[in-house]
Amino acid sequence: MIERNLINTAFSEEFGKQMRFIIGPRQCGKTTAAKWFLQKYNCQSLYYNWDNRNTRDRYIEDNHFFSRDIYNVNSSWNKPVLCLDEIHKYPKWKNILKDFYDSFCNELLFIVTGSARLDMMRKSGDSLAGRYFTFRLNPLILQELSAGDYHESFESAQEWIQSKLDNPIYKKQELEALLAFSGYPEPLISGSDRFHRKWQTDYMDRLIREDLREITHFQEMENLSILMKLLPDKVASPLSINSLTNDLKTSFQTVSNYLNGLELGYLIFRIPSYSKKIARSIKKEKNCIFMIGRE
Known about the structure:
The chain is an alpha/beta fold. It folds into 3 domains: 5-138, P-loop containing nucleotide triphosphate hydrolases (Rossmann fold, 3-Layer(aba) Sandwich); 141-181, no CATH class; 193-290, Arc Repressor Mutant, subunit A. The chain has helices at residues 5-10, 30-40, 53-61, 67-70, 93-104, 116-121, 142-145, 157-166, 172-181, 185-190, 193-216, 221-230, 241-248, 252-264, 278-283; strands at 19-23, 47-49, 81-85, 109-113, 132-136, 268-271, 287-290.
């Protein structure tokens, strides 16, 4: 397994007893990272996937079903670590997490993993306020792929830049692989152009027609698919919503909502134009970057 930098940060004891919410794009390695951490500290039996009917049935029978499993775990961490994967798909999941945390926060470390829906749903209420920290896992970066030394933090951006200038490291092969197959583990590890193209098509189609339909309630999903075909040609220049409005024959607000939805689904992210004046930077059009690469 490729060790992720987030593991060193998110699971640090410095963050106390709060739950760790691991969010990020689909298939970027959230579950794998959580399972790796559980296995490292002999807690692999405390992984519960809420897509699994057995997990849901156990919860219905006993609200604290995992309490029996804790006694069979000899954790090498300071306390057992438990992972709840995809729990946000279960009704009233926030109340469930609140009950789990309030009852076992001193006995267990809770890890909660999920993608776009977890990221959006956690913002829709404050019932879990003060009970968790959120960490975002992105696709692989060059430093992770090349197994470089991990540095926790720097006091300033200038210090980080200077460290790179003082110790230049060139990883041509790894960089070419990232540019060709993106930072998502499956296509990157496969190293196959054909696999990457098929994976990319299925990934985008599934995300648009399943995840975004559920979390945004967009009605005209076909327009969203058309928008994704239009965006690649506009990557090199500031993204004009007015131009997209004319292309799609729809309103400015609708296109703006589409772009927000694509950002929420981690398909794209937008970078504001640089300006010394904040007000001017806000008004300027943003550049659009694809998270999964493009042809």
